[in-house]
Amino acid sequence: QVQLVESGGGLVQAGGSRRLSCAASGSIFSILAMGWYRQAPGKQRELVARISSGGDTNYVDSVKGRFTISTDNAKSTVYLQMNSLKPEDTAAYYCNARVLTYRGQNETYWGQGTQVTVSS
Question: What is the pLDDT confidence band of residue 15, given thresholds at 50, 70 and 90?
């Protein structure tokens, strides 16, 4: 089993910054990719940013130039640095990890979500 524990959500004013963290633990042989998704009320969950084990990244257009995804491989942790936050960034943010387990299986896991609220 794999656990993803997120932290860093909260209330921030428009124009401010916030950093989300997600630590993975459990039966992980290797992490193939990690990412952040978000879901606002009444909207579908969308990919915000993703980073592969090789360091390749991709972002949704709306956050390009404002958000940065990074990892600390030694800590099996992924970060999302969010700058110049806008009210439309308000959502529950979910960590996602695709891992190869010790059983040799490619599995996907989700965190419990952390709320980010941007006030105008």
Answer: very high
